[in-house]
Amino acid sequence: MNEPVPIIAIDGPSASGKGTVAQIVAQKLGFHFLDSGSLYRLVALTAINAGCALDDEITIAEKAKSLDVKFEQGKILLTGEDVTETIRQERIGTSASKISALPKVRDALTQRQRDFAKAPGLVADGRDMGSVIFPTAQTKIFLTASAEVRAERRYKQLITKGNSANLDDILKDIRDRDVRDSSRAVAPLKQQADALLLDTSDMTIETAVQFVLDAYLGK
Length: 219
Ligand SMILES: Nc1ncnc2c1ncn2[C@@H]1O[C@H](COP(=O)(O)OP(=O)(O)O)[C@@H](O)[C@H]1O
Ligand SMILES: Nc1ccn([C@H]2C[C@H](O)[C@@H](COP(=O)(O)OP(=O)(O)O)O2)c(=O)n1
What we know:
Layout: E1 7-11, H1 18-29, E2 32-35, H2 36-49, H3 57-65, E3 69-72, E4 75-78, E5 81-82, H4 90-99, H5 103-114, E6 122-126, H6 129-133, E7 139-144, H7 147-160, H8 167-183, E8 196-199, H9 205-217
Parallel strand pairs: 1-6, 1-7, 2-6, 7-8
Antiparallel strand pairs: 3-4, 4-5
The site of deoxycytidine diphosphate (YYY) has 17 residues, from helix 2, helix 4 and helix 8.
């Protein structure tokens, strides 16, 4: 059993700003941070590198169980190799969305995610942080924005990093991923009854961060 520590669970769709907001909130509170999507992305990259079919549940679940990953000072090392940028590619996001629908793959990652819950606290972002991984989290946020705004954000993010990107393709990818992540049988993306809705379509990052801090501090 993990010790009970304060947990802020932030779930929501692709490119809504979950990771950005979660990371800043974690810094401000001095809490640990879990980017659960990165684990699904790492499993997807491992499966692709091994030439696995993305519906080969048993093989991919085994790879998920034995994932050799280190999070070090903002870098993500997969079997010693720096894959921080590689796993952010949209094709890896799409593959992560596919393998994340496989129940055995999700099971294989459950304990690894719960192990991030250490004192003094944790901010975790993903799709099922408040529903499945940390159902007793004190603060649950469903962070979203319109698909168009999210596509713009992802587009700017990719261009800023020097990648080529096409806004229409990104919008289509985001819509496809929304449907896949929300309609799967296991741990679908859905606002939980006990999660606060935070629509950031017309909101700055600073205001979104303050909303989460206020929710946690009971203001
Ligand atoms: N409220 C906001 N207003 C404007 N841009 C934002 C906002 N929130 C996040 N962003 C930007 O949108 C992009 C995607 O955010 P990210 O945190 O990676 O999303 P997610 O983790 O939900 O996929 C980033 O470049 C981030 O700086
Ligand atoms: N807790 C989680 C986190 C991510 N996933 C899946 C579904 C998502 O489409 C992929 C990639 O997640 P990630 O949060 O990295 O994606 P975005 O940055 O939001 O585009 O992984 C999940 O099923 N459960």
